[in-house]
């Protein structure tokens, strides 16, 4: 069983930054793909970024390219999402997800494990 626990959400003004963390436990993650998704109020869940646990070029949604960075600390089994130049439209519940295989899919259905989510609110 895989457990994912997010932290780091909060309220920030437009133009500010936040760093989200996702602590993973329960399995060996070397062959996993880790991703961040978000669900804005009243909207469907959407892909934000993903990274193979073993390395390689990450993937980003067009809406966050150049502003968000996904990274990981293998020693801590933790994945991060650094969010800069935040905009009000970034307001959402952000969730960490893991797939037990290598995948570049941005579909939530490709990910088997999910954290509980953390709220990010960006004020204008």
What does this protein structure show overall?
- With 124 residues, this protein is an all-beta fold.
- It has strands at residues 3-7, 10-13, 18-25, 33-39, 46-52, 59-60, 68-73, 78-83, 92-99, 113-114, 118-123.
- The strands form two sheets. Strands 2, 4, 5, 6, 9, 10 and 11 form a seven-stranded mixed β-sheet that branches. Strands 1-3-8-7 form a four-stranded antiparallel β-sheet, with no helix packed on it.
- It starts with a strand and ends with a strand.
- The mean pLDDT is 93.
Number of helices: 0
Which overall shape is indicated by the principal axes computed on the Cα atoms? globular
Q: Approximately how much beta-strand content do the residues carry?
A: over 45%
Helical fraction equals under 10%
Element order: H for helix, E for strand: EEEEEEEEEEE
Tell me about the largest β-sheet.
7 strands, mixed
Radius of gyration, in Å, reads 13 Å
Mean pLDDT: 93
Which consecutive residue ranges, at least 5 long each, have pLDDT under 50? none
- Tell me the number of strands: 11
**Class derived from helix and strand content:** mainly beta
Report how far apart the termini are. 40 Å
List the helices and strands and how they pair.
Blueprint: E1 3-7, E2 10-13, E3 18-25, E4 33-39, E5 46-52, E6 59-60, E7 68-73, E8 78-83, E9 92-99, E10 113-114, E11 118-123
Parallel strand pairs: 2-11
Antiparallel strand pairs: 1-3, 3-8, 4-5, 4-9, 5-6, 7-8, 9-10, 9-11
């Amino acid at each position: 069983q895989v457990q994912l626990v997010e932290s780091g959400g909060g309220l920030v003004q437009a133009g500010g930054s936040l760093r989200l963390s996702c602590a993973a436990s329960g399995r060996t993650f070397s062959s996993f793909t880790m991703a961040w998704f978000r669900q804005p109020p009243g909207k469907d869940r959407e892909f934000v970024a993903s990274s193979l646990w073993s390395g390689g070029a990450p993937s980003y949604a067009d809406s966050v390219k150049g502003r968000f960075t996904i990274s990981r600390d293998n020693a801590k089994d933790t994945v991060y999402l650094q969010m800069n130049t935040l905009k009000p439209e970034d307001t959402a519940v952000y969730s960490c997800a893991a797939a037990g295989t290598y995948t570049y899919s941005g579909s939530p259905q490709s990910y088997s494990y999910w954290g509980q989510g953390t709220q990010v609110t960006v004020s204008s």
